[in-house]
């Protein structure tokens, strides 16, 4: 028998839910680990009440995100936009430096007395 558990840090929340609401999801997976052993539990069509709620019914539903728990967010667009902006800024500064070097008249300070 292998005992598996979720992460023990407080920053790793499985199902973040506002107080007074129940967490509802169509599909979610939870990864369990213990040293070299690991497993994934797939949960489908479930609802949990994470806080004490008076009565036998669930509180108002709080729907999970469409990406599911533990899934990554695609960062392609922000990286592409940030890289493009950085390149445009560098080209603008370089172009302005070249323009100043060749087109702006140089002041001869040695003639001043």
From TrEMBL:
Q: Which UniProt keywords apply?
A: Glycoprotein, Membrane, Signal, Transmembrane, Transmembrane helix
Which segments cross the bilayer?
79-99
The record's GO CC annotations read: late endosome membrane; lysosomal membrane; plasma membrane
User: Out of the domains of life, which is the source?
Assistant: Eukaryota
Q: Which residues form the signal peptide?
A: none
Ubl conjugation listed as a keyword? no
BP terms from Gene Ontology: establishment of protein localization to organelle
Listed name of the protein: Lysosome-associated membrane glycoprotein 5
- Native source species: Timema shepardi (Walking stick)
């Amino acid at each position: 028998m292998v005992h598996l558990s979720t992460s023990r840090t407080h920053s790793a929340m499985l199902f973040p839910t506002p107080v007074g609401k129940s967490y509802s999801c169509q599909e979610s997976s939870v990864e369990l680990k213990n040293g070299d052993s690991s497993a994934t539990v797939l949960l489908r069509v479930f609802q949990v009440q994470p806080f004490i709620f008076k009565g036998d019914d669930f509180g108002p539903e709080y729907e999970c995100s469409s990406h599911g728990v533990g899934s990554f967010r695609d960062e392609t667009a922000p990286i592409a936009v940030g890289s493009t902006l950085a390149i445009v800024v560098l080209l603008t500064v370089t172009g302005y430096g070249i323009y100043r070097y060749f087109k702006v008249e140089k002041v001869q300070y040695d003639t001043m007395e």
